[in-house]
From TrEMBL:
Stretch forming the signal peptide: none
Subcellular location per the Swiss-Prot or TrEMBL entry: Membrane
Chief localisation class: membrane
Domain EamA: 24-83, 94-227
Name under which the protein is recorded: EamA family transporter
Database matches in InterPro entries: AA-Vitamin_Transporters, EamA_dom, EmrE-like
Originating species: Svornostia abyssi
Length: 248
């Protein structure tokens, strides 16, 4: 997979360049959150790195080498240890379907974004995606009667602004910046560090317990980052005997 520096922008951005699907993914996620525990939802959602890896290889977008394979195994195993020990509620079929739909849509979103991120600046692409998602979700929540801006307090608007600016706009900008440099598979695998950071912040801010298995899981996820950059020795077969020159 060529790096982002090798895929420099060669064409001006246009409004049709923004990859679709972010609003759909968010809608599926929050709908699933009403039916599943957050920990269980996270486990289903973070099947997307494997989906991206397989699809990227099949589409010829990426190479699935030993480093990426090792990193995917480490990250997935660590994620299970981090999240599964938090506790899981009942397995609601519709909730599972929605969470897997969110993972599938997000995988498609990453793969569609990959070539676009190579020719459109990350800040421009982020602005297009966020604007489109905001418009889609505003229309959608209005149609179903869930949009009640007057019910928010000043504190609520403050937190909403933080969520929009930091957790959405900044996060999408950084993701697109990384995507154009490392490709879809590596970007998806590195995204698994998000639940580890979430659990860590919950411990620091809310004083939640952090068990041994969660510590081990977090270490595995972090080790996946190093696995992606490890220099593995090439496989070498037995040396081939060279013919001996006959001086006679």
């Amino acid at each position: 997979m060529p790096c982002g520096d090798c895929r420099a922008a060669t064409s001006p951005p246009d409004s049709g360049s923004a990859p679709p699907g972010y609003a759909i993914q968010a809608g599926c996620y929050f709908a699933a959150l009403q039916r599943l525990d957050a920990s269980l939802l996270t486990l289903f959602l973070y099947t997307f790195p494997a989906m991206v890896a397989v699809a990227a290889v099949l589409l010829g977008r990426d190479r699935f080498d030993r480093r990426r394979a090792a990193a995917l195994v480490l990250a997935s195993t660590g994620l299970v240890l981090v999240v599964a020990t938090v506790g899981t509620g009942r397995l609601d079929p519709l909730g599972v379907a929605l969470s897997l739909s969110a993972a599938l849509v997000y995988s498609t979103y990453i793969l569609v974004s990959d070539p676009v991120a190579g020719r459109v600046r990350p800040d421009v692409l982020s602005a297009l995606v966020c604007t489109g998602a905001a418009m889609s979700l505003t229309v959608g929540t209005t149609l179903v009667g869930d949009l009640h801006p007057g019910a928010l307090t000043a504190s609520g608007w403050g937190w909403l602004t933080c969520l929009a600016a930091v957790s959405t706009v900044a996060a999408i900008l950084l993701f697109f910046s990384g995507l154009r440099r490392v490709g879809p598979t590596t970007a998806a695998i590195l995204s698994t560090i998000e639940p580890v950071v979430t659990v860590g912040l919950a411990v620091l801010i809310f004083g939640e317990a952090f068990g041994v298995l969660q510590v081990l899981g977090g270490a595995l996820v972090i080790s996946a980052v190093f696995a992606l950059h490890a220099r593995l020795p090439a496989w070498r077969g037995a040396p081939v005997a060279q013919p001996v020159a006959n001086d006679a």
